[in-house]
Amino acid sequence: MKMKIQSKNGHKILNINRRIAIHARCLNCSGWIPSSVRNCEHTDCDLYPYRSGKGKQDSLSRAKAIRAFCLWCMNGQRYEVSQCACLDCSLFPFRQSRLDRSVAIIDSKPKKRRIERRIRADTSRPIPKYRSTVTV
């Protein structure tokens, strides 16, 4: 899924998955210094085992770690996690159990062409005139 996330020099568009999202979040936490990510001292962080691709790397455990981190970020309030407004956080689409594609950047040309064809087809039809059935 392509997404616009925060980076060292502003924002950038990445094709993102959970592994890349965790690494980007760790870079953000360390001030964009890769050596600080490797030598991270926050061993109590839920993302710690996944910061550089080490540890158990199945997608289910990464998803649980992301949800736990988001819960920690929102002070343990589940409702606040669902209402998170930080759209440029790399973990945003993965914060709940289902993937949130509302922040995805869609640049599919076939889909765009299909939509344009539908719009052209709708404008070429005459607009039907309906007679009002309500009498006053």
Could you characterize what this model shows?
39% of the residues lie in helices and 9% in strands. With 136 residues, it is mostly helical. It has one domain. Strands 1-2 form a two-stranded antiparallel ribbon. The protein is globular, with a radius of gyration of 22 Å. It starts with a strand and ends in a 12-residue tail after the last helix. The relative contact order is 0.15.
Structure in a nutshell:
The protein is mainly alpha-helical. The protein is built from 5 helices and 2 strands; from the N terminus they run ββααααα. It has helices at 18-29, 34-38, 59-73, 78-82, 109-124; strands spanning 2-7, 10-15.
Keyword list:
136 residues, mainly alpha, globular, two-stranded antiparallel ribbon, 5 helices
Largest sheet: 2 strands, antiparallel
- In terms of DSSP E residues, the strand content is 5-15%
- What share of the residues lie within helices? 25-40%
User: What is the N-to-C succession of helices and strands?
Assistant: EEHHHHH
Poorly predicted ranges: none
Number of helices: 5
Could you give the distance between the termini? Answer: 56 Å
Structural class: mainly alpha
Mean pLDDT equals: 79
**Largest beta sheet: strand ordering:** 1-2
Q: What is the number of E strands?
A: 2
Integer count of domains: 1
Shape: globular
What is the gyration radius calculated from CA atoms?
A: 22 Å
